């Protein structure tokens, strides 16, 4: 398997955070959950302390799987640290400085997952001919909705009538349900368009005096929405 | 692979391994006085609702190398906003906050932990809003003049 290669590495500990400069947190094991003490109580971090952007897919593709594995844990710890700080700030009704840091880390984590999936997928395509992503099945529910469902593993094969399939022609109840559903959706869409048209026609004077707009339209061109 | 794709365990197979765990976990402050205070060697975490106590133990010992002795889990229901609070018979829920999961992690007796004072030398609260307005002024100015119609330009010239 592809992942057997990276099985041997232990998740790295972030050395930077262990070597804290502050005497208060130096002995504590839980210092990994806190930001650098220089940043405590700051409204905004200095420009050098801020992250620029998350790692892009193109950059991550150049890295080895071991490096990606290490980077994952670094980012995971960083995210936990930021979440801790964010919750501490929220609990005391304060503004969390530079909240975009969290977005950057989350973006990196997402990109790493994508790149690892790409590699895993390539391996599976080569070795087995199947995709690494979970297989999907098209299923029709009892109410007549047809949708894609992720296939799941089961300990035993399904019994009579347990497995769902796609149904091309719906029976009585499901058919009626779909008819009514479509009608309801159509009405919703019509009302939405009507409201939009009314809002577009309203001017400031009408709003100020709470006066209604025009109700009937002889020509379709008068309605802005349908143009 | 990750916590998102769990495979069923079959007898004889090796234990399930997670190479890229995507659980989150945050340290939470607890009161130092009153009946909600906790022992010195204990820490309270807010954890991902998918995590079990076994997951918390593995997470903290493997990733953070903490000397975990015991983990206790607490589930806290989110607040419900009722349409009519006083009406006990026919009240309907308007909104419910998400449930939260907390873990009380007991470490070996030698460990002592105090939640640090994060806002000891906090900047003055006064004039905070003006500061942010000042910071955002440039961004807003840029956003007003930015040309988003770049369908044919390509990626090379930036966002």
UniProtKB/TrEMBL annotation, chain A:
It comes from the Eukaryota. GO terms for molecular function: structural constituent of ribosome. The keyword 4Fe-4S does not apply. It comes from Mesorhabditis belari. GO terms for cellular component: mitochondrial large ribosomal subunit. Keywords: Mitochondrion, Ribonucleoprotein, Ribosomal protein. Signal peptide: none annotated. It is found in: Mitochondrion. This is Large ribosomal subunit protein uL29m. The keyword RNA-binding does not apply. PANTHER family: LARGE RIBOSOMAL SUBUNIT PROTEIN UL29M, RIBOSOMAL PROTEIN L47, MITOCHONDRIAL-RELATED. InterPro entries: MRP-L47_sf (IPR038340), Ribosomal_uL29_mit (IPR010729). One of its GO terms (biological process) is mitochondrial translation. Belongs to the universal ribosomal protein uL29 family.
Automatic annotation (TrEMBL), chain B:
The lineage of its organism: Eukaryota, Metazoa, Ecdysozoa, Nematoda, Chromadorea. GO terms for cellular component: mitochondrial large ribosomal subunit. Keywords: Coiled coil, Mitochondrion, Ribonucleoprotein, Ribosomal protein. Residues 122-149 form a coiled coil. GO terms for molecular function: structural constituent of ribosome. Belongs to the universal ribosomal protein uL23 family. It is found in: Mitochondrion. This is Large ribosomal subunit protein uL23m. Component of the mitochondrial ribosome large subunit (39S) which comprises a 16S rRNA and about 50 distinct proteins. It comes from the Eukaryota. GO terms for biological process: mitochondrial translation. SUPFAM superfamilies: Ribosomal proteins S24e, L23 and L15e. Gene3D superfamilies: 3.30.70.330. The keyword Nucleotide-binding does not apply.
């Amino acid at each position: 398997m592809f992942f057997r290669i990276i099985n041997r590495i232990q998740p790295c500990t972030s050395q930077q955070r262990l070597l804290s400069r502050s005497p208060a947190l130096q002995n504590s094991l839980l210092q990994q959950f806190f930001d650098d003490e220089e940043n405590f109580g700051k409204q905004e971090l200095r420009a050098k302390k801020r992250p620029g952007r998350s790692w892009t897919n193109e950059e991550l593709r150049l890295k080895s799987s071991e490096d990606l594995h290490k980077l994952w844990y670094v980012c995971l710890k960083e995210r936990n640290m930021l979440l801790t700080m964010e919750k501490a700030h929220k609990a005391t009704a304060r503004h969390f400085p530079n909240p975009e840091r969290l977005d950057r880390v989350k973006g990196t984590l997402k990109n790493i997952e994508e790149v690892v999936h790409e590699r895993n997928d390539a391996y599976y395509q080569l070795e087995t001919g199947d995709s690494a992503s979970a297989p999907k099945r098209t299923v029709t529910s009892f109410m007549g909705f047809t949708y894609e469902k992720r296939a799941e593993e089961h300990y035993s094969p399904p019994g009579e009538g347990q497995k769902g399939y796609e149904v091309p022609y719906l029976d009585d109840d499901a058919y009626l349900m779909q008819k009514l559903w479509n009608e309801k959706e159509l009405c919703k869409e019509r009302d939405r368009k009507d409201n939009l048209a009314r809002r577009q026609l309203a001017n400031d004077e009408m709003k100020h005096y709470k006066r209604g707009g025009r109700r009937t339209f002889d020509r379709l061109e008068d309605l802005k929405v349908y143009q | 692979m990750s916590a998102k794709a769990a495979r069923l365990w079959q007898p004889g197979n090796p234990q399930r391994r997670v190479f890229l765990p995507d659980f989150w976990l945050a340290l939470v402050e607890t009161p130092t006085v009153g009946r909600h205070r906790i022992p010195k060697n204990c820490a309270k975490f807010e954890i991902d609702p998918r995590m079990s106590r076994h997951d918390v133990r593995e997470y903290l010992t493997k990733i953070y190398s903490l000397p975990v002795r015991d983990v206790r889990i607490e589930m806290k229901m989110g607040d419900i906003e009722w349409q009519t609070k006083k009406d006990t018979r026919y009240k309907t829920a308007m909104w419910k906050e998400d449930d939260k999961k907390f873990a009380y992690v007991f470490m070996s007796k030698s460990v002592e932990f105090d939640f640090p004072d994060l806002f000891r030398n906090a900047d003055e609260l006064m004039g905070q809003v003006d500061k942010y307005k000042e910071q955002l002024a440039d961004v807003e100015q840029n956003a007003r003049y930015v040309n988003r119609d770049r369908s044919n330009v390509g990626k090379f010239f930036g966002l």
